[in-house]
């Protein structure tokens, strides 16, 4: 039962009691209270409808944004074309073995805390993609462009 249906039922019960809403103080009070409950019920139903409509709008915008992101970042490679990402470094945690993608900002500190096992370990940057091979991008590829 919706709130409006419950208020309508309450209103029917009050009318069934044949309370005099013109002369009785209690009848006037009950009548005003039921009127207020009807307004509250309608307001709540309007809010629920608006929330559903807004949710559908957000879903549509999210889908559109995904399409734009896909068009902008599709098959994105770095300048040299090797496909490595200069902003991230991939490694495995020496404690638990989980694969980690580490942000360049974290790499500068030299130590990383694994989000899986919570252990800290040092990073050796000479083993990864970003060794200097002379291509100008420090990505480890053989491309001199």
Q: Could you walk me through the main structural features you see in this protein, from its secondary elements to its overall organization?
A:
- The protein is mainly α.
- The protein folds into two domains: 3-73; 79-145, no CATH class.
- Helices cover 48% and strands 11% of the residues.
- It is built from three helices and four strands, in the order ααββαββ.
- It has helices spanning 3-16, 25-73, 104-109, and strands at 88-92, 99-103, 111-113, 120-122.
- Strands 1-2 form a two-stranded antiparallel sheet. A two-stranded antiparallel sheet has the order 3-4.
- The protein is elongated and about 90 Å long.
- The N and C termini lie far apart (70 Å).
- Mean pLDDT is 79; it is low at 127-136.
Shape: elongated
Number of helices: 3
Taken as a percent bin, the fraction of beta residues is: 5-15%
The overall pLDDT, averaged over residues, is 79
In short:
Helix content is 48%, strand content 11%. The chain is mainly alpha-helical. A hairpin with a 6-residue loop joins strand 1 and strand 2.
């Amino acid at each position: 039962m919706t709130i409006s249906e419950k208020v309508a039922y309450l209103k029917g019960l009050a009318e069934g009691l044949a309370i005099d809403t013109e002369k009785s103080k209690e009848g006037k009070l009950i009548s005003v209270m039921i009127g207020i409950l009807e307004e509250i019920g309608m307001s709540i139903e309007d809010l629920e409808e608006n929330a559903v409509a807004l949710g559908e709008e957000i879903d549509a915008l999210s889908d559109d944004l995904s399409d734009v992101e896909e068009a902008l970042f599709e098959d994105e490679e770095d300048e040299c074309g090797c496909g490595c990402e200069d902003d991230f470094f991939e490694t495995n945690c020496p404690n638990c073995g989980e694969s980690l993608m580490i942000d360049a900002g974290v790499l500068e500190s030299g130590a990383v805390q694994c989000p899986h096992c919570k252990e800290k370990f040092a990073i050796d940057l000479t083993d990864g993609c970003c060794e200097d091979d002379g291509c100008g991008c420090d990505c480890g590829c053989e491309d001199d462009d």
